[in-house]
Amino acid sequence: MSNFATKLFFWLSSFIYIYLIHTTTTTLAQPDFLSYFCENAANYTENSTYQKNLDTTLAALPTTNNGFGFFNLTTGQGNDTVHSVALCRGDVNPDACRSCVNDSIVNLRQLCPNQKEAIGYYDYCLVKYSNEVILGSTRIKFYVYLANTQNATDVDQFNSDLAPLLKKLRGDAAAGGPLRKFASGNVTGPVFSTIYGLVQCTPDLSEIQCSDCLEDIINRIAFYFNGAVGGRVLVPMCNFRYEIYRFVNQSSRVI
């Protein structure tokens, strides 16, 4: 091999090596959750039956889309049963939904390496797995509160404009049927502003369960967000968000 060929070979080898390192790092890096929770009360041991069922469940979960961004799968028996769900925001496209669910699964396994239960929230989706039954459950272990730091100039007027919007959306989402419980819309707020909102439940909930869940978290606005021009509350089976800018990806209905 000539001296030039030898130098070229080593240069290309170094370039490929650096490229592979960069590609691997980029692939493994996952965005941060808005919030996540690892249940430390129940752990599993490495190579246990539970871990094998969890691996199987989370590998297959992204293939269970009901067509409207809701995923669920249960694997195993008895104490080794793994329940899992994922819910994409009702206005995101399938590619963004799928990417969000996949990122969530990777991130949760890294952040909660041996916990039997974990949940992660992104802007576009949530993923939860547990050794306890998830579908149909309305048990809430903790609430996630995220508020806009800007306050309305007229708090009373802002609240009086926001309340009927969220009430209307709550009713629309709860009546959404067994495949999709999601609603978004907007209303004119103070000083010619526009308030945008969305609400969503996991579609396994009944109409009453969905309505009650949304009512519970919407009622928390007065205590946690009173005066804030934007906010959201996240729990595993329902959520809402409102802002004074358009954050919803689909056309919103004016009420």
UniProtKB/TrEMBL annotation:
Signal peptide interval: 1-29
Bilayer-crossing regions: none
Q: Where is the Gnk2-homologous domain?
A: 32-134, 140-247
Does this UniProt record's set of keywords contain DNA damage?
A: no
User: What keywords is this UniProt entry annotated with?
Assistant: Repeat, Signal
Give the protein's recorded name: Gnk2-homologous domain-containing protein
Give the organism's phylogenetic lineage: Eukaryota, Viridiplantae, Streptophyta, Embryophyta, Tracheophyta
